[in-house]
Amino acid sequence: MKFKTLLMAMAIGGSLLACGEASNERKGANELDELIGKASPVIENGVMTPEVLYSFGRVGNLSVSPDRSRIVYQVTYVSIPYNRTNSELFVMNSDGSDKKQLTASNFRESQPRWIENGGRIVFLSNESGSSQLWSMKSDGSDKRQLSDVEGGMDGFIFSPDETKLLFVKEVKTVQTAPDRYADLPEASGRIVDDLMYKHWDHWVESVPHPFVADLSDGKLVNVRDIMEGEPYESPMVPFGGIEQLAWSPDGKTIAYTSRKKTGKEYAESTNSDIYFYDLESGETRNMTEGMMGYDVNPSFSPDGTKLAWLSMERDGYEADKNRLFVMELATGQKSYVTESFDYNAEAIAWGDDNRTLYMVSSYQGTNRLFSVDAVNRDIKEIASGKHDYLSVDHLPRSTGWIWFRVR
Predict the structure, then answer these.
(1) Closest by Cα among 142, 113, 109 to 128
(2) Are the CB atoms for 369 and 362 separated by under 8 Å?
(3) Are 64 and 393 in contact, with CB atoms under 8 Å apart?
(4) Which residue range(s) make up the domain with 11?
(5) What's the number of domains the chain is made of?
(6) Collapsed DSSP state (helix, strand, coil) of residue 177
(7) What region does 360 belong to: left with phi over 0, alpha with psi -120 to 50, or beta?
(8) pLDDT tens digits for 339-392?
(9) CA distances, 300 to each of 65, 306, 353, 395 (Å)
(10) Residue 406 falls inside a structural domain
(11) Cα–Cα nearest to 213, from 159, 288, 250
């Protein structure tokens, strides 16, 4: 087995980063005069101050080219005077050489992905005023805006044949005062008659929904909400992202994660499920019905015969063990493949043989990499060290390579 350390990323927390990334909208001209980018930290008297920590760029989303030769990745920079962040895209060879910056603006570019067999890169950018899908050549030239979705999109996945796009967009589910009283268009009051009216740091007036669209002449057409009319969320807030959605290898089915509950029942429950949406018929099936805990992050095997996901056992218990399950789709038979493993399973990825899974697990003080045989349930540690592995990915049709991020 070959390994390649993808990126060494320093994770810097703090409210400044969270606030800046959540609302990095277009600013006034005076604030856009100076590009927010790489800083030159100065350490005085040997003191590591918060300002010095914030001056480091933070590595975010990344993607490996289909031929494994290049990596495109996102770096977020912080401006303390402007109290916000800015993200740029870079590309480099997989051995870390020949690093090039692809974007340089005070618009936020994020979530880069390769398409057209590595010929182009797609990404999200707020250059047009909201988060939309853009593409460019792998050298950063020929930028094009692909989407014009009202309110913007939060995440996306191309279908395997790149003819369709699955993306996430907020859908309004709660009436505000102006909605109910047309003669009060400027009213800021909220109408609260049920839970959850507030979640962590925001008022709940909308929920994320998965949308699917066709790509025609570089534009999105035939856009549809696959949960239209449902007041439920997918991905699930506050921590869920695009990893809670997946395409089947044949591009005919979308798997998504949702907790289809509202009000007090939603507030008290952690019972989510994995659903299959059939693109041809529009029908939805609950694939984990009867499993009462937190079921998330569906992942199809390369041949499309199996589904892996993460599952907790008990409803309402947020700190339950995170287990790895695999289902034979032809029979519906489920297998608890980490039953003999006392630790959580995280960040799963399939191998090419349709039976090996790779996962990250917090094991004896560090996050380590393991391989799991879905048939005989054999679990082996394949990478350790005094650092944390953050994610793992296995490239389809590769020859034994896996990619991972390390902190």
Answers:
(1) 109
(2) no
(3) yes
(4) 1-134
(5) 1
(6) helix
(7) beta
(8) 999 999 999 999 999 999 999 999 999 999 999 999 999 999 998 888 888 888
(9) 20, 6, 13, 13
(10) no
(11) 159
| Radius of gyration for the alpha carbons in the chain, expressed in angstroms and rounded | 22
The separation between the first and the last C-alpha atoms of the chain, rounded to the nearest angstrom, is 21
Q: Which amino acid, one-letter code, is at 370?
A: F
Residues 196-235: pLDDT tens digits?
888 888 888 999 999 999 999 889 999 999 999 999 999 9
The residue written with tokens 């090996």 in the block is 356
Q: Which residues pair with 171 in a beta bridge?
A: 207
Distance of CA 107 to the CA centre of its chain: 20
Strand 366-373 to 379-383 pairing: antiparallel
Q: Is residue 42 included in any domain, yes or no?
A: yes
Backbone φ and ψ of 91, nearest 5°? -135, 145
Sequence-distant (≥ 6) Cβ neighbours of residue 128 within 8 angstroms: 145, 148
What global pTM score does this model have? 0.87
Domain presence at residue 221: no
94 CB burial (10 A radius; 0-12, 13-18, 19+)? middle
* pLDDT mean over 26-47: 73
Phi, psi (degrees; rounded to nearest 5) at 244: -90, 5
- 82 belongs to a structural domain: yes
Is the Cβ–Cβ distance between 348 and 361 less than 8 Å?
A: no
Sign of CA dihedral 18, 21, 26, 30: positive
